[in-house]
Amino acid sequence: MMAELTAHNVPKNIPRRSVTKDDKFVSFGHHNWNLVLNMMLGIQMAVKSVVENPGPVTAKDFQLKYVFELVPRRTKDLRTFYTVCKFFDYAPAVFDALRKLYGIKNDDYLRSIGPETMLNNLIMGNLKTLSELTSSGKSGSFFYYSADGKYTLKTISRQEFHFLKRILRNYYDHLVQNPNSLIIK
């Protein structure tokens, strides 16, 4: 899934720091709690909103973009008490087709990476969500791993996003033609 998450009045350059032993899991109060929560909610909304497409993926499917407004969050500035976080879902039918190609059921995917896991953990007294690792490369990307270790979420730069969007059709065609490919799925 290729998605973009934006929130108004949120600093663009969130300081990147190395993961310490205490930072391994993102829990309530963690500096990236809102980011992780919004990613989980956005992914859930995006996956559940995909309309069953009985036919093959078309050129139009690569151009589609859906926008979801997520739960507002408090800000420190009292003049803008809440900010709206937007989740942009790009080419949802394409990524749905890729999940199906690799036998990933949407319910199983959401069980691993959706907010239900977080809510179940909260009920059980566990405030942890996804585990986090900061890249040691120059991009400073954050990697988030689902609790069951099946899935990885990676934050990317705008430049990387545009590159991936540009090659999406070739990426999809390659995976369809080479289902045993070693390229990341």
Descriptors for this entry?
7 strands, single chain, 3-stranded antiparallel beta sheet, alpha+beta, 185 residues, 5 helices, 23% strand, 4-stranded antiparallel beta sheet
In short:
The chain contains five helices and seven strands.
Overview of this structure, please?
By secondary structure, the protein is an alpha+beta fold. The protein is built from 5 helices and 7 strands, in the order ββαββαααβββα.
Shape: globular
> Structural class, judged by helices and strands?
alpha+beta
Distance between the termini: 10 Å
- The total count of strands amounts to 7
- How much helix is in the residues? 25-40%
Query: Kindly state the mean pLDDT as a whole number?
Result: 74
Please tell me how large the radius of gyration is.
17 Å
SSE succession: EEHEEHHHEEEH
Main beta sheet strand tally, sense and closure: 4 strands, antiparallel
Content of β-strand? 15-25%
Q: From the structure provided, what is the oligomeric state, counting identical versus distinct chains?
A: single chain
Count of DSSP-assigned helices = 5
Strand order of the largest sheet: 2-5-6-7
Low-confidence regions: 6-23
